[in-house]
Amino acid sequence: MTLGADLVGGARWFAGVHVFDRGRLLLTIGGESPAIAGPPPPRAHVRWIGGGPHRGESFLDCALREASEELGCLVEIVHEPETIVELRPDPPARVRLEDRPAPLLIQRYLDSEVLVMYRARLLGEPWPADVERLVWVPPAAIQPLTYGVSPRDAGELGIEVLGPEPDPEAVLFVGSAGAEYLLWHLGADRP
After folding, report:
1. Within 13 Å and on the Cβ side, how many CA atoms surround 131?
2. Which runs of consecutive H residues, i.e. helices, occur in the chain?
3. What pLDDT score does 105 carry?
4. Tell me, what CATH number does 39's domain have?
5. How many CB atoms neighbour CB 80 within 10 A?
6. What is the dihedral of CA 142, 147, 152, 154, to 10 degrees?
């Protein structure tokens, strides 16, 4: 057995939460990054909830703070019996970690940055606080989002935006190398 910190090592890291509630994922709609593969611009990246640490923060403290800041409500972290570990270029594996609570995901990107993500339960009603928009996404919409979905067509897929309407010309998309796609692909939210 090992700790999540052993897997992350000295890499630059980020922490966040994965909220799956009433059959939907809660995500943010972030800014555009040309480094993320996806449909051509204009586009709006649908991504995980979280961000970078403040000095001295643990993975867990960072994830809880970021969730509270972005969602405008508190969350409760749920311990995972197995953590999905994807330390690229190695394929994903399920590992039992000593951490209590153990994260849902530890993912290293090709640029060597690491994401540590915890499963969380909402303790209030979310509304965009430190982000412009939140979005509820049914798991079935993840695959279409990798190709890009017009905001006009989002409702047909059950996608619900919280906050101001997105630019009607900017397609919503999920990066196929990101945490949301990996968790969907591995069935992290299947009963």
Report:
1. 31
2. 4-8, 59-71, 142-147, 151-154, 179-185
3. 98
4. 3.90.79.10
5. 21
6. 0
Whether 129 is covered by a domain: the verdict is: yes
Neighbours of 129 (CB within 10 A): 13
Cβ count near 54 (within 10 Å): 10
Task: Please check whether residue 191 lies inside any domain of the structure.
Answer: no
Q: By three-state DSSP, how is residue 2 classified?
A: strand
| Mean local confidence (pLDDT), 87-111 | 94
Contacts of 77 (CB under 8 A, 6+ apart): 17, 60, 63, 64, 101, 118, 119, 120
Q: What does the pLDDT look like over 102-158, one tens digit per residue?
A: 999 999 988 899 999 999 999 999 999 999 999 999 999 999 999 999 999 999 999
pTM over 0.90: yes
| Residue found by looking up tokens 């051509």 in the block | 40
How many whole angstroms separate alpha carbon 171 and alpha carbon 45? 8
Judged by DSSP in three states, 156 sits in helix
| pLDDT exceeds cutoff 70 at 1 | no
Query: Hunting for tokens 């330390």 — which residue is that?
Result: 87
Domain, as residue range, for 115: 4-185
Q: What tokens were used for 153?
A: 């067509």
